[in-house]
């Protein structure tokens, strides 16, 4: 019995087009809200009276809650049905967006952003689980995952454009409130999805708590390393506690959990274990860090407005979608996935290396547009085969766990990558020249990381779509 069957009788599947549209629309919202507040942070700081130390948590609260609860959200889709979990995630995300848009003080906004992240952690694995259980392995699944992946990548870039436009034309509050009507429509349409099969077992709460707290403390410790130093008691204590909690997670999951969040049999699949290690490293480049440092460069070095900064990301969005939707699926029928992942990583590394040389005198064309061609082409080339690889060969009963693990690797990579890069570039601010140097240092580290991804891709099993 699959998640598209219920109570022993086959449920007529929803139209494939509707399934794909709902999954992609929800995933777009989730990824959009990772970066949508970046260009509006100055306005938020002025309106609500954020201090310099508290402002990063407007973005960080979402990212940490999202990354920390993804394993739980993925396993919940296996136990309670992807359709039910999808609807619950949309509802939670929409309510938290409403609360954030109406927030009157910093604490309420940060709490609402954490609520959004929790809703996103429930929702994102459900979108991927719905696709992998609705579309069988092969070209049809590849096309569906190519669309889902392209939308995911474009959402990160579009967040800056949408955020800049809404902040300039209306208010920073519109950035959050716009999710409410979209979420309401998605909830109505989601009623056409089969609820999915309920399976025996309950979510393992000790494992969920230790994984969430461990990831959150790891990111917090890395974020504190920049301003406080690695030997500061707060930094060291957070990092030590994170290691202890993640070790406890591994122990209770393998020895005491009747229904583990992360079934050990999944990690015995080389595509899953090696693929998610690669996903973590690519997330440390293509998720939050890339958008954060590009925003910093365009706004603080090139002195572009929020709206012009958002428009500056349009080439990234369009090129990523063109390569991801039109070129990559065609190549996947002709080349091994490992070849495409390695080639994409090396092309993107060239773009990040070029971006690392940008100065205040480079202007938009030389400092953003040129590198964008390589960065976006490489990202569009590697992400679909990597997503396909880490979800191939997974039993239907573990589809949600595999989706949760993949999303966790990607989002944790983004959160930890941003924290580590922020720490590595701490103290380089001040003048436009100094800020350009800090951004350049961060992009150079990302280029080296993608070079490592190209090498690690050779450890993946061979895989190619049937013609």
TrEMBL record:
PROSITE patterns xrefs: MFS
Segments traversing the membrane: 18-41, 53-73, 85-104, 110-133, 145-166, 172-191, 203-222, 234-252, 273-294, 306-328, 340-365, 442-462
Record keywords: Cell membrane, Membrane, Transmembrane, Transmembrane helix, Transport
Localization annotation: Cell membrane
Chain ranges of the Major facilitator superfamily (MFS) profile domain: 19-465
Main localisation: membrane
Domain of life (superkingdom): Bacteria
Topology of this chain in the membrane: Multi-pass membrane protein
Keyword Protease in record: no
Protein's name in the database: MFS transporter
């Amino acid at each position: 019995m699959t998640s598209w069957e219920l109570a022993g009788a086959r449920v007529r599947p929803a139209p494939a087009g509707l399934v794909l549209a709902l999954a992609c629309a929800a995933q777009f919202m989730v990824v959009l809200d990772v970066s949508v507040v970046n260009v509006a942070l100055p306005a938020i700081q002025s309106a609500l009276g954020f201090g310099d130390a508290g402002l990063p948590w407007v973005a960080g609260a979402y990212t940490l809650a999202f990354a920390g609860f993804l394993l739980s959200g993925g396993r919940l889709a296996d136990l309670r049905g992807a359709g039910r979990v999808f609807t619950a995630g949309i509802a939670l995300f929409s309510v938290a967006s409403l609360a954030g848009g109406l927030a009157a003080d910093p604490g309420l906004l940060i709490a609402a952003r954490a609520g959004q992240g929790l809703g996103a952690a429930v929702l994102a694995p459900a979108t991927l689980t719905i696709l992998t259980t609705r579309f069988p392995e092969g070209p049809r699944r590849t096309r569906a995952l190519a669309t889902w992946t392209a939308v995911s990548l474009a959402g990160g870039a579009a967040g800056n454009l949408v955020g800049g436009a809404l902040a300039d034309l209306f208010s920073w509050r519109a950035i959050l409130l716009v999710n409410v009507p979209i979420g309401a429509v998605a909830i109505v349409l989601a009623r056409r999805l089969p609820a999915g099969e309920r399976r025996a077992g309950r979510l393992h709460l000790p494992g969920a708590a230790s994984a969430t707290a461990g990831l959150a403390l790891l990111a917090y410790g890395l974020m504190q390393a920049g301003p406080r130093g690695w030997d500061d008691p707060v930094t060291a204590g957070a990092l030590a506690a994170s290691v202890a909690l993640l070790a406890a997670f591994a122990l209770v999951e393998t020895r005491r959990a009747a229904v583990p969040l992360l079934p050990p049999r999944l990690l015995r699949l080389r595509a899953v274990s090696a693929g998610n290690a690669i996903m973590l490293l690519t997330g440390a480049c293509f998720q939050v860090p890339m958008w954060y440092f590009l925003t910093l460069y365009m706004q603080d070095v090139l002195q572009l407005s929020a709206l012009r900064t958002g428009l500056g990301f349009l080439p990234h969005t369009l090129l990523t979608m063109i390569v991801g939707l039109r070129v990559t699926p065609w190549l996947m029928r002709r080349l091994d996935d490992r070849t495409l992942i390695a080639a994409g990583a090396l092309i993107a590394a060239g773009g990040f290396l070029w971006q690392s040389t940008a100065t205040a005198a480079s202007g938009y064309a030389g400092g953003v547009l040129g590198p964008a061609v390589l960065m976006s082409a490489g990202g569009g080339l590697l992400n679909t085969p990597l997503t396909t690889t880490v979800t191939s060969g997974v039993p239907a009963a573990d589809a949600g766990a595999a989706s949760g693990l993949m999303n966790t690797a990607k989002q944790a990579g983004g959160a930890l990558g941003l924290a580590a890069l922020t720490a590595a570039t701490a103290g380089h601010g001040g003048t436009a020249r100094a800020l350009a140097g800090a951004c350049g240092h961060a992009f150079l580290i990302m280029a080296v990381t993608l070079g490592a991804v190209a090498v690690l891709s050779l450890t993946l099993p061979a895989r190619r779509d049937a013609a």
